[in-house]
Design a protein that fits this description.
The complex is a heterodimer of chains A (155) and B (360). Chain A is α+β, with helices and mostly antiparallel strands. Chain A is built from two helices and ten strands. A six-stranded antiparallel sheet of chain A has the order 1-10-9-4-3-2, with no helix packed on it. In chain A, a hairpin with a 6-residue loop joins strand 7 and strand 8. In chain B, the strands form two sheets. A two-stranded antiparallel sheet of chain B has the order 1-2. In chain B, helix 3 packs antiparallel against helix 5, helix 3 crosses helix 11 and helix 7 runs antiparallel to helix 8. The termini of chain B are far apart. Classes of the chains: A alpha+beta (155), B mainly alpha (360).
């Protein structure tokens, strides 16, 4: 008498539910199949500049860098900084500020390595973060003077 | 006489196909509350006209801009110095971006303080926040395109910020930069986002935002709704409010044109990735507050990195304004007051940090 008691109703609802689940599963699979190639397409290939293992670079004549001055240079894919410090030694560092990734410079007036972005300061002899927001010291490089030229290499 | 008949015929023809009659009937009843803070109702419309000018000037700039590492900077120089009115179009775009963001800040803070986020307008509120975030993303991505020194380091700092997002930060940063250092990949990606992806993400949601405003009507502040009926004054949207809207548009478009003419936008020296960040580098004014906030934190706070703590605190601001409609629904007077104080606190903090950042 009542439609809901009709025994034919139950399988009908089952079938609908089954199809709903099936469509959802296929939808999910389809989404992944669509998004995965897009992700792979956008994922960058290794930059040949980053791939090439640069272990040392010649920065220039040691004599061209007087005491209390610094010079920025390219070390492979990263910026580097070489300093002729007050202790009359040459020191070189990875010039990427450990705070927000700006490129640091040597400030002769402060006698410190300084970042223009947020005012971070580092010791020019050790690369230690001494003031401002940087959380870590700069990574040091090795400096050698070969036939009067400054040669910077990974430590 | 004949024109009138023609008009009627056209109207009849359109009405049959579009069903205009209910729309016209509805527009006759569209009302806007009139009170001492009605002025702020113009901010959304002003933001809208600036979005339109950004789209138009952006399309014009695209004709001459070249998203190539070696040509980007010189193509901007070309627009600025060689193309007739190029400097003007570019200045309109750069100034328009600033004024759009300024209008959005006013729009955001005024709707916040007038409690426009309360039910049933939560989705209007969220779409508005989405649009505001997107406009800031437009600003950030567009900033790199001239490929000058300042834009280079601004992007670097921004991407380093993205890197700090827990779990997915590295993926996001790599996908946006197209590697680990800013390069042609970065320029192409930012260009694509700025001119194609973001506009597509903006326009439909802008449509929803505007549609919801039509559905719910202009939000009246709570104190206005408590006034006795005769003191609740409304004006017609058509033609009263819309004509005043147009007048506001004329004023702000004139301001835009004057600013673009008197202070045309220049271009800094071309980015040199291995040179240090230039002295006196500062973000645009709308990022000065987070910039100053980031500077205040020392390198390490206990076991945590200072900038991570700073970023976590800053992330709470958007989160809190997203959730505010659930918390201050208009039932509790106490919560309403706290929400207002919080809004005033945010405005003051934003202004103080911005000025501080500017003079630091």
């Amino acid at each position: 008498m009542n439609n809901t008691t009709n025994p034919n109703d139950k399988p009908k609802i089952h079938r609908r539910r089954f199809l709903q689940v099936l469509v959802s599963i296929f939808g999910a699979i389809w989404s992944v199949l669509t998004l995965y190639p897009i992700y792979r397409y956008l994922k960058p290939k290794k930059n040949p500049l980053e791939e090439a293992q640069v272990n040392s670079v010649t920065v220039g004549d040691a004599s061209s860098l007087p005491t209390n001055s610094g010079k920025n240079f390219q070390f492979g894919s990263v910026p580097g900084l070489v300093i002729h410090a007050e202790d009359n030694q040459f020191h070189a560092f990875d010039a990427i500020c450990t705070h927000m990734g700006c490129t640091v410079q040597y400030r002769p007036d402060l006698k410190l390595i300084w970042c223009a972005c947020h005012g971070g300061e580092y010791d020019p002899e050790t690369g230690k973060n001494v003031a401002g927001p940087p959380p870590r010291p700069l990574t040091p490089f090795k400096v050698a003077i070969v036939q009067g030229k400054l040669v910077v290499s990974k430590g | 006489m004949e024109i009138k008949i023609l008009e009627e015929r056209i109207y009849h023809w359109l009405d049959e196909r579009l069903g205009l009659a209910p729309l016209i009937e509805w527009s006759k009843h569209k009302m806007v509350p009139v009170h001492r803070h009605s002025f702020w109702y113009y901010m959304g419309g002003i933001a809208l006209i600036f979005i339109i000018t950004q789209i138009v000037t952006g399309m014009l700039l695209m004709v001459y801009y070249i998203p190539d590492l070696k040509s980007a900077h010189s193509s901007i120089l070309n627009i600025n110095s060689q193309i007739d009115f190029g400097w003007f179009i570019r200045s309109l775009h750069a100034w328009g971006a600033n004024l759009l963001i300024l209008a959005l800040f006013f729009h955001f803070f005024s709707t916040y303080l007038m409690k426009a986020y309360r039910p049933p307008r939560e989705i209007t509120w969220w779409t508005g926040l989405y649009l505001m975030g997107l406009v800031l993303a437009f600003g950030f991505s567009g900033y790199l395109l001239p490929w000058d020194q300042v834009s280079f380091f601004a992007t670097k700092v921004g991407m380093d910020t993205a890197l700090r997002i827990p779990l997915i930060g590295h993926q996001i940063s790599t996908l946006l930069i197209g590697g680990s250092t800013l390069s042609q990949e970065t320029l192409s990606r930012f260009f694509t986002l700025h001119v194609v992806v973001f506009p597509f993400l903006l326009l439909p949601v802008l449509g929803i935002h505007l549609l919801l405003i039509q559905i719910h009507g202009t939000s009246a502040p709570p104190w206005f709704k408590k006034l006795p009926q005769p003191q609740q004054i409304y004006e017609k949207f058509f033609p009263n409010f819309i004509l005043k809207d147009f007048m506001g548009w004329m004023v702000v478009l004139n301001i835009l044109a004057i600013l673009a003419t008197i202070y045309p936008t220049g271009v800094g020296p071309e980015a040199q990735p291995f040179q240090p960040a230039p002295r006196g580098i500062k973000p645009e004014w709308y990022f000065l507050a987070p910039y100053q906030f980031l500077k205040l934190f020392p390198g390490n706070i206990g076991p945590f990195q200072g900038e991570q703590v700073a970023m976590l605190i800053m992330a709470l601001v958007p989160l809190s304004v997203i959730l505010i409609p659930f918390w201050d629904t208009g039932v509790s007077v106490k919560r309403s007051k706290i929400a207002t104080y919080y809004g005033v606190f945010l405005i003051l903090a934003f202004i103080i940090l911005t000025i501080w950042g500017y003079f630091s």
